[in-house]
Structure formats: structure tokens, C-alpha cells
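Weekly sync, protein design subgroup
Attendees: M.S., D.O., the rotation student, P.L. (late)

Item 1: inverse folding check
M.S. brought a backbone from last month's batch and wanted to see whether the design step gives back something sensible before we order anything. D.O. pointed out we never logged the input encoding, so this time it goes straight into the notes. C-alpha cells as presented (439 positions):
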């Protein structure tokens, strides 16, 4: 527990454990594990968490929040309903500060996010909502297969939208104090949505971090970009498929989606390909080259055919190292990162979009590796620090660590794909223990 909630003496025994992690959009993230973040799965259904009785400290905080809400012009009836009888939810604080025990692997993530069941359900949704998807593509320029992919990953096509009362969850995070200003503003924006009559208070449920609806918008994003697609007077992203998908299409359009291009494709790398050309950062911006240049370097489609002749820039990713598929990604991959800053998530969106529109599975699926424990990642990082390849250890397998792994691999005659498995960890540990300079 953090300082404020420890002070008021809340215990986890006083709550019903609720839904798991979910993605938050509009620049808000519940954790910092960007490229391997396991947060892009829908919220599991659960009973609404019960809240304990607040004490004087929270009551005082709430009194000020009520006054500030009134200054923003929110109706007293909405303030009374949203803030009248609430208390912090300890489970929300626990999830906000939770560190994963394991680092997710690309293979396990992709197999879960783009399961055969989800592909089949997505294809059914493509057929069921064909007219709507065609309308949205004409209006916003976003192909329907991508809207269905976001829908599938965010809420399993509307079936798992979250069980936490949004205002209470946001109040909890704001009062907790770690990111008070951000979550306090989101709380007031959620109340503004209620004030505008788009959803009733009992139905405003979402993730523990305040993401809402069938494609998980934060309240600030809702107010900027949600649309009333069916013109019924309400922007209902919770129960109205047209509004949910229309709002997502509007979001992607405003984030800069390239309506003329796809997200990327699986490719073959030639023998002897210089792996220093592979991007390791989440944004895949280290080695952006025109498609023609990648073709000159010997890249081909996954089936062996030539790359398309297009004036487009791309980057190469190896999300599972040389053990898995090689992917050539375009700007729409980076646009997807603005929805959820996770390389695994952005790849899964593109792959699911391809699959629901009839494409087959990856030609080179990744080999299965057991997830690394956090203590193993810490050990790897501490070894890299000892050897001078990394400045500090944080237990997160992020871009900086992958760059350090590749530097170690290059210095020691190993395949420089930046991918850390247990063989690489053992090599780093052995080098660090013998206290020999790398290389």
C-alpha cells in the first residue's frame, strides 16, 4: 500500500478482488513495461469491488473535490451521485503499483491475443457488422478489419468492458497521490460525461485505471474524440457498437492513421543479414529505410515473393529474436502505439486484422520460451551493469536493456538480435562472474 492508503488503514480483506489489468488510452498507462506489456488483454469479468468506509482524511479530500467539480460547472445532482458515497478501492492501488512476476513472451502473448477463437469471432463480427464497417471506412478511412481488431483485443468484442465504477477508481488513484493531477482531471472528465448524459452513473463501469467502454477510452479521450455515430443523442461506447467503433475510427484518424497503407507484413531475411539493421526500441525508429532499400538488402515476402514496389518507409522487428518471425512494420504500427504503447500489442492488432480478413497464420511462428522471472531479468541487467553495457537495473525488459543485450552479443561473438533467453543470461552471468572485460 502507498502512503495515503496505509495511513487510513485500508486492507485488502475489505474488498472483493476485481478485474485484471487493461489498457488505458490517451497517454495514460498503468505500468511502464512498454514493449512486452501484458496489459492488452480484455478485462476479465468480475464482481464489482466493494469499498471500505472512508476516514476523515479521504472525506476532507472528497469535500475539496466536490467543490472543484462545482467550479467546473458539473451539476450538483451528478456530484452527489458520483462522489456522495464512495471510498478508495485498495485493489485499484495494488494493481497500479503491481510489478509482474514474469516478463511475457511474444509467442504466449500472440497466441492469447490472436487465438483461433478470437479470429473466428472476429470474422463473424466482420460479417455481422459489414454495413457499419463499410460506412465507417468511407467516413474515417479506417479499414473495418482494424476496427474489429481493436475491438477484439480491448474487450473481446464488447463482452469484457470492466467492472470497476469509473469515478471511484479514478478518485482512488487521484487520492493515492502518485499521479494525482492526472487522475484527478480524468475523474472530473468522467463526471462531465455523466453531466452530459451520455451514460448513467450505474452503467459507467470500466477498468481499474478508468478506461471505459468496448474499446477502452479514458474519459479525456472520450470528451475529445468519442462520436454519436448513430445520431441518437448519446455517445455510448459501452453498449452501442456503432458509437464504440465510430469513436475508435475517429481516434485513429486523429492520431494520423495512413489510410492508404496497412500496418506491416511478415518477411524473410536473407542469409547473412546484418542484424544491426533490426530495430529494438518500441517505436522501431532506429533503422527506418525505404521499402526499395530493404528489397536491395535481400528482404522478401514471407512466402518468398518480392516486396511490393511502393514509396513507403519501414523498419524490421524481431519480437522473438531470430527464433521467431521477422516483421516489416510501417507508420500505422507506430500509430497503434499511441493507443497502447506496447510493441506486442501493436503487432497483435495488425496480425489480428489480417487474420479476421482471411489471411493465414505466420509462416515462421516463434519457438516457445518459458517466460523470464523478474529476478532473472534483474540478474541479467545487473550483469550487464557490471560489464559496462547498462547503467542500472529495473527488472523490466525494455528497449534500453535489449540494446545492451545486443551490444553484449556483438562484443562476444553471439547472434546480435537483442533477444534475451536463458542462454544469453547464462553468458552474461559467466562473463560478469569472471570479472573479465567484455570482448
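Designed sequence read out in the meeting:
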Amino acid at each position: 500500500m502507498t502512503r495515503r492508503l496505509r495511513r487510513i488503514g485500508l486492507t485488502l480483506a475489505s474488498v472483493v478482488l476485481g478485474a485484471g489489468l487493461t489498457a488505458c488510452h490517451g497517454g495514460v498507462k498503468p505500468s511502464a513495461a512498454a514493449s512486452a506489456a501484458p496489459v492488452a488483454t480484455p478485462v476479465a469479468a468480475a464482481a464489482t469491488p466493494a469499498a471500505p468506509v472512508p476516514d476523515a482524511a479521504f472525506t476532507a479530500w472528497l469535500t475539496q473535490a466536490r467543490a472543484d467539480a462545482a467550479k467546473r460547472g458539473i451539476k450538483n445532482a451528478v456530484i452527489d451521485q458520483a462522489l456522495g458515497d464512495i471510498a478508495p478501492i485498495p485493489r485499484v492501488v495494488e494493481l497500479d503499483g503491481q510489478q509482474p512476476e514474469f516478463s511475457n513472451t511474444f509467442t504466449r502473448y500472440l497466441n492469447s491475443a490472436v487465438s483461433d477463437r478470437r479470429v473466428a469471432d472476429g470474422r463473424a463480427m466482420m460479417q455481422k457488422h459489414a454495413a457499419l464497417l463499410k460506412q465507417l471506412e468511407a467516413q474515417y478511412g479506417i479499414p473495418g478489419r482494424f476496427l474489429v481488431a481493436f475491438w477484439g483485443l480491448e474487450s473481446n468484442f464488447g463482452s469484457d468492458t470492466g467492472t470497476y465504477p469509473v469515478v471511484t477508481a479514478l478518485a482512488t488513484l487521484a487520492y493515492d497521490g502518485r499521479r494525482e493531477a492526472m487522475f484527478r482531471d480524468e475523474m472530473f472528465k468522467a463526471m462531465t460525461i455523466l453531466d452530459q448524459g451520455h451514460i448513467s452513473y450505474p452503467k459507467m463501469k470500466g477498468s481499474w485505471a478508468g478506461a471505459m467502454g468496448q474499446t477502452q477510452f479514458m474519459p479525456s479521450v472520450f470528451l475529445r474524440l468519442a462520436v454519436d455515430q448513430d445520431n441518437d443523442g448519446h455517445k455510448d461506447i459501452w453498449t452501442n457498437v456503432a458509437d464504440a467503433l465510430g469513436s475508435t475510427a475517429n481516434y485513429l484518424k486523429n492520431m494520423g492513421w495512413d489510410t492508404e497503407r496497412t500496418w506491416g507484413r511478415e518477411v524473410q531475411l536473407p542469409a547473412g543479414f546484418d542484424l544491426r539493421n533490426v530495430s529494438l526500441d518500441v517505436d522501431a525508429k532506429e533503422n527506418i529505410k525505404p521499402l526499395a532499400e530493404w528489397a536491395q538488402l535481400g528482404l522478401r515476402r514471407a512466402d518468398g515473393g518480392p516486396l511490393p514496389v511502393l514509396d513507403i518507409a519501414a523498419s524490421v522487428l524481431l519480437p522473438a529474436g531470430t527464433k521467431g518471425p521477422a516483421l516489416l512494420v510501417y507508420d500505422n504500427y507506430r500509430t497503434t502505439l499511441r493507443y497502447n504503447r506496447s510493441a506486442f500489442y501493436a503487432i497483435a492488432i495488425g496480425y489480428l486484422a489480417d487474420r479476421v480478413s482471411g489471411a493465414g497464420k505466420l509462416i515462421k511462428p516463434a519457438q516457445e520460451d518459458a517466460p523470464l522471472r523478474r529476478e532473472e531479468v534483474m540478474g541479467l541487467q545487473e550483469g550487464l551493469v557490471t560489464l559496462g553495457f547498462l547503467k542500472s537495473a529495473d527488472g523490466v525488459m525494455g528497449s534500453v536493456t535489449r540494446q545492451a543485450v545486443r551490444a553484449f552479443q556483438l562484443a562476444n561473438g553471439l547472434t546480435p538480435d537483442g533477444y534475451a533467453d536463458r542462454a544469453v543470461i547464462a553468458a552474461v552471468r559467466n562473463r560478469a562472474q569472471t570479472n573479465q572485460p567484455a570482448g
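Discussion: The CA atoms of residues 318 and 326 lie 5 Å apart. The two ends are 44 Å apart (CA to CA).
Action: P.L. to compare against the previous round before Friday.
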